[in-house]
Specification:
The complex is a heterodimer. By secondary structure, chain A is an alpha/beta fold. Helix content of chain A is 22%, strand content 27%. Chain B has four helices and five strands; from the N terminus they run E-H-E-H-E-H-E-E-H. By secondary structure, chain B is α/β, with parallel strands linked by helices. Chain B has helices at 12-21, 37-46, 66-69, 101-112, and strands at 7-9, 24-30, 54-59, 82-87, 90-96. Classes of the chains: A alpha/beta, B alpha/beta. Chain A binds chain B through residues 36-40, 44-47, 59-61, 80-81, 83, 129-136, 138-140, 143-144, 212-213, 234, and chain B through 3, 31-38, 41-42, 45, 75-80, 95-97, 100-102.
Chain lengths: 309, 114
């Protein structure tokens, strides 16, 4: 088994991890970023970014590429699409094993695994993914020209994407579990004044059905218990995000009830020398800018921790 | 042209030539969108691991991409990218929407292992 030594290993290559990598490698600390997927994290899943200060208009792909190149230019090693096999958080020297064979050790770890779009986890959802069910309106909207679709969710993404999808679809029905929306008022008003949008409130999607493509959805009214079946051509699902912390279950790192990492004011987790940043954290606002700030603070504290030891 | 490090299929003639001259081929047909980029990235990483497979991308919106868009195996697909796997010029597997590194590897192992 190969064993390589680093000062800091960052697990996760989204904006938080890349920022931490930029700071620590620029400070001449030997730094490794490992990611189980594509470098860039959820940034990659964003078509247009218009609110990242100092960058007028860019794509998630471009911003991720720039951050990755920036980290590499300071000497940061980056490994993507790896399988995270084991992490030893305890002790002065931590270790990370990937692909069941390569072991890397470090004096500090920064956990920055980010989050992912939540699925509904109802029957038919997996079967019809890409065959009527989508999680990206910008990617797949044009497949639904003059079709009838539903949008599931009640946050900003759901409401904004529902409005955007009316460019293509003949009818958009928003299905939401509560009697009110979580989205900002302006997004709600935009949706309400759009003549192509209908609403089904206080209801849950129970099942998606069809033959080779999505054809129907079963919706349960949570107040009356009544189940109705609706013929549809597509469904776009925007029901929030969850932290990518499954690996930490049964590990030493403290998580809250929502599976998010709990940190102190120095962004250190319950384990000494293990810091965390970005959407994996227990926090309210999840933006690229907040992830970048978390990554910076976690890296600076990790550097200080290493220097103290 | 897609901004990837993969080889690009740019015409129907080139597509036919690739399928005629290679036993195992994977073509990902998409845009530079959120669901497509991770697939290209995984393919770039897998190129070294599978020297027996030729990896290509193709821009979904060029007219010649009808060779992928209109494949019977892609009927009913409504999610980018359309990813198609060929053995001796015949489609052996086609997927729609985002597939992660492990899912792609599983297909490569199932369809192209010697």
């Amino acid at each position: 088994m190969e064993d390589k030594q680093y000062d800091i290993i960052i697990i996760g290559g989204g904006p938080a991890g890349l920022t931490a990598g930029i700071y620590s490698s620029r400070a001449k600390l030997k730094t490794l970023i490992v990611d189980t997927g594509t470098i860039g994290g959820q940034m990659i899943l964003t078509f247009e970014i218009a609110n990242y200060p100092g960058v007028q208009n860019t794509t998630g792909f471009q911003l991720a590429k720039t951050m990755k190149n920036q980290a590499k230019s300071f000497g940061c090693d980056i490994l993507s699409n790896v399988k995270l096999t084991d992490v030893e958080f305890k002790g002065k020297i931590k270790s990370v094993t990937i692909n069941n064979k390569d072991k890397y050790s470090a004096r500090a770890i920064i956990w920055a695994t980010g989050g992912r779009s939540r699925m509904l986890n109802v029957p038919g959802e997996k079967k019809f993914k890409g065959r009527g069910i989508s999680y990206c309106a910008t990617c797949d909207g044009d497949f639904f020209q003059d079709k009838e679709i539903i949008v599931v969710g009640g946050g900003n993404s759901a409401l904004e994407e529902a409005v955007a999808l009316t460019k293509y679809a003949s009818k958009v029905t928003i299905v939401h579990e509560f009697d009110h929306f979580q989205a900002f008022e302006h997004a709600v008003q935009e949706a309400k004044k759009n003549p192509k949008i209908d609403f089904i409130m206080e209801s849950h999607v129970q099942e998606f059905t069809g033959d080779t493509s999505l054809e129907k959805v079963r919706i349960k009214n949570l107040k009356t218990g009544k189940i109705t079946e609706m013929t549809i051509d597509g469904a776009f699902i925007f029901v929030g995000y969850e932290a990518n912390n499954d690996f930490l279950k049964d590990k030493e790192i403290e998580l809250n009830d929502w599976n998010e990492v709990v940190v102190n004011s120095n962004y250190q987790t319950s384990e000494e020398g293990v810091f965390a940043a970005g959407d994996a954290l227990a926090k309210r606002y999840r933006q690229i800018t907040t992830a970048v700030a978390d990554g910076t603070i976690a890296a600076l504290n990790a550097m200080e921790y290493i220097n103290r030891k | 042209m897609l901004q990837t490090n993969l080889k690009h299929v740019e015409s129907e003639a080139q597509y036919n030539e690739i399928l005629q001259n290679n036993e195992n081929v994977m073509i990902c047909c998409g845009r530079m969108g959120p669901m497509c980029v991770p697939v290209y990235d995984a393919m770039e990483d897998l190129e070294n691991e599978y020297p027996n497979v030729k990896f290509y991308d193709m821009e979904f919106d060029i007219p010649d991409a009808h060779v992928i868009r209109n494949l019977p195996e892609c009927r009913g697909f409504m999610g980018l990218p359309f990813t198609v796997y060929y053995k001796n010029g015949k489609v052996v597997k086609a997927t729609t929407s985002l597939q992660n590194y492990e899912q792609i590897k599983e297909i490569l192992d199932a369809e192209f292992s010697n």
